[in-house]
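Question thread 4412

I'm putting together a teaching handout and wanted feedback from people who do this every day. The idea is simple: show students a protein as raw sequence, then show them the structure tokens that encode its fold, then repeat with a second protein so they can compare. Below is the first pair exactly as I plan to print it.
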Amino acid sequence: MNEWHKVSNEDLLQIIVGLRQKLSQVIKKNGKLTDKTVVEVSQELDNYIVEWQRRKNINRKER
């Protein structure tokens, strides 16, 4: 996702929760952490988590 500023913090958190659940389901279904779909979902989740952490760091610096 290139337009992070359009996603609210609440929506971002919901996306992360949903992707965590999806990742868990994909792992159970495919059985291997190296499965292509598992890796893709994991990487997508990583991107959203990094954005969440970036926002939290910005908020801390602004205080």
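The second pair follows. I'd like the answer to focus on this one:
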Amino acid sequence: MNETAHPPATLLLVDDEAGILSALRRLLRPTGYTIHLADSGRAGLEVLEREKIDLVISDMRMPEMDGAQFLEQVRERWPGVTRLLLTGYADITSTIAAINRGQIYRYIAKPWDDDELLQIIGDALEHRRLREENARLLALTQQQNEALRELNTNLEQKVRERTAELEQVNSFLNLANDKLKQNFLVSIKMFSGLIELRGGAIAGHSRRVADLARKLAIHFELDTKGQQDIFLAALLHDVGKIGFPDAMLARPVVKMTGDELGLYRKHPVVGESALMPLDELKEAARLVRSHHERFDGQGFPDGLVGLGIPLGARILAVASDYDGLQNGTLAGKRMSPDEAKAMIAQSRGKRYDPQVVDAFLELLGRPKPETGRDVEVRAPDLQPGMVLARDLVGRDGVLLLAADYILDASLVKQIQDYARREGVSLSLHIRNDKRMSSGASPGSS
């Protein structure tokens, strides 16, 4: 923990499970903090009435009075006490209630990582100290301004002296504000990692998307505020998935059932709702809502078209799908960077903004062409036995046929009938390297 000249902090731990309280006390015993325990929200309020508490850690799900209700009372009666929420289930509605009503400093998921929990507590106490120091420095500034108004003699010299003191105070305030901004960004990054704590292919996804989205925002010469909004939206674009079942969270989009797709299509709106209460995240929330819109108007949730989609959301769509294609959460298989670039380029002007795709390819380099391995064949010219050289993807981004699929007569007829019925000019990339075995069966790969 951080070494400080201040006396050790006093913590109150509130949980109806004795095992949790015991584990937290063992973890915190070597830190030097003074620890108080309470097995319910009501017992926690009684401790606060008789003890000076610096920080409260409360469980969310407790009988009679849950964590949101308890922390709301703490905020109203002891506003100077820093509040942390400890929860063991992914219920975004209850979490939002605790954030809005209890105005918690941070939310910690069970089971916690010991080192991370200690760091969060240290940061929370440092945040509280900085807040108190800010108040003290502001009060000092007001006192000094009052003294300046009362000066009648040697005004010029005294003004110079007081100005030097005020500059020093302002320097301290700037340092404190910079620290608060840094803590805010750290909090956002930790919040964005909540969904990734459940592991799987999504680990690290938000951070990679945020880094690429910020580079694209810089390419488009957006101002600092615009770059920051896109970066924050990228970190938080999947927060609406926090209530997904584990099985669904690990399932690629192309393999989801109809009911799961219905729930999946709601996550941008859920994510926006979670972020809107914070003024600093209102623009980021708007981008989160629109990051599944398509340039051709076939996206969701609002069916926006072309430049009617916010630029930040158009950037986020490319950055998120590029990483999703590589980690296997979109197409059901992991793609190489070149394969993912080719898929993005293939949907230029349909799924993605052409300008954003061009900037993306300029930034990361165009995919290396596989010369001599495929030829583009129009639907009327397809023949049974031909082998797909590239994945065939529908307008909504769903994988229809995988590369190396062998076309049979029935499938050729279905493709030709579809192209004729829809009046579209449909072409498929067919292998040209003659590596198909004569004994291979249709649909094998």
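Top answer:
Good format. For the second protein you could add a caption like this: The chain has a mean pLDDT of 81. The longest strand covers residues 82-87.
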